[in-house]
Amino acid sequence: MATGSSLLPTTIPLRVWDATNGTKHLTLAGHTERVNGCAYSPDGQWIVSASDDNTLKVWDATNGTEHLTIVVNTGGLFGKVMGCAYSPDGQWIVSASYDRTLRMWDATIGAQNVTLQGHTGWVMGCAYSPDGQWIVSASGDRTLKVWDATSGSERLTLEGHASLVISCAYSPDGQWIVSSSDDCTLKVWDASSGTERLTLAGHTDLVYRCAYSPDGQWIVSASYDRTLRMWDSTSGTEHLAWKGHQKGVNGCAFSADGQWIVSASNDGTIKVWEAQTSKSLVVLRVEGALYCCSFSIDNEHLITCGARGLYFLRLVQ
């Protein structure tokens, strides 16, 4: 990795690690600035990453080869790409940007399809509904919006957070949307009507990420208060809190079988936890703050991204 204070862009690598012993076994050149988001394709064959360098990149998940570079915006600061997600059929990628828009891209060739416009603040996060018909977005304008994934037309605006909305996710059955905010809360919304159903309060600092368990019973949240918390998705009751990170927690995700949770933190560590206890199973330290994380479908790998790049980790013995 390049160091120093050169004004020329330096390449930030994607790195492949063995999480069982912490050894690095491959480094790939890629983004030139920090990586804000990453996601697996539904079939697990591809990884998409979103970066401050105004691009998305698509990588082969089996060997780390760069498959596509998509230039989202050439507008400098306002071109930063904050989030990304695959459609359930794997044909499309949606990106969320500082320029207040979302854009849909052909996942195979990288061609732009639709631009979703309507937010009045930067767009921090995005997610597809399980049936692929809808996209939800989280914005600095304190709202979420639901969009028609085919036409790009705005369907709903969800208002209720007292500060910027940072992330969002659909429940596995598509009936609910969860959001996390700088106002230290999460909210659960009816995905059809946009009605606020629950407010989850307990964090003492901004909530950077949220996710549903595969069975929809639980919601996990990651906060700058250095904790993760698990909530009953029906009642909103806090079920568990995980403590162990030394700085704010930016990323969280369930494994595909719901048994484990992975977290990514500003302290430069990735932790894997048992979902129904507070036991930490794996801890791996990398360079720089980490912002997002996700398990592979087979639970044998995970990806995480941050200030120094995108990391791909092997979890099996």
Quick rundown:
0% of the residues lie in helices and 55% in strands.
Description:
The protein is an all-beta fold. The chain contains no helices and 29 strands. It has strands at 13-18, 23-29, 35-40, 46-51, 55-60, 66-71, 81-86, 92-97, 101-106, 112-117, 123-128, 134-139, 143-148, 154-159, 165-170, 176-181, 185-190, 196-201, 207-212, 218-223, 227-232, 238-243, 249-254, 260-265, 269-274, 280-285, 290-295, 301-306, 309-314. The strands form 7 sheets. Strands 2-1-29-28-27 form a 5-stranded mixed sheet, with no helix packed on it. β19 and β20 form a beta hairpin. The radius of gyration is 18 Å and the shape is globular. The protein starts with 12 loop residues before the first strand and ends with a strand.
Secondary structure layout plus pairing:
Elements: E1 13-18, E2 23-29, E3 35-40, E4 46-51, E5 55-60, E6 66-71, E7 81-86, E8 92-97, E9 101-106, E10 112-117, E11 123-128, E12 134-139, E13 143-148, E14 154-159, E15 165-170, E16 176-181, E17 185-190, E18 196-201, E19 207-212, E20 218-223, E21 227-232, E22 238-243, E23 249-254, E24 260-265, E25 269-274, E26 280-285, E27 290-295, E28 301-306, E29 309-314
Parallel strand pairs: 1-29
Antiparallel strand pairs: 1-2, 3-4, 4-5, 5-6, 7-8, 8-9, 9-10, 11-12, 12-13, 13-14, 15-16, 16-17, 17-18, 19-20, 20-21, 21-22, 23-24, 24-25, 25-26, 27-28, 28-29
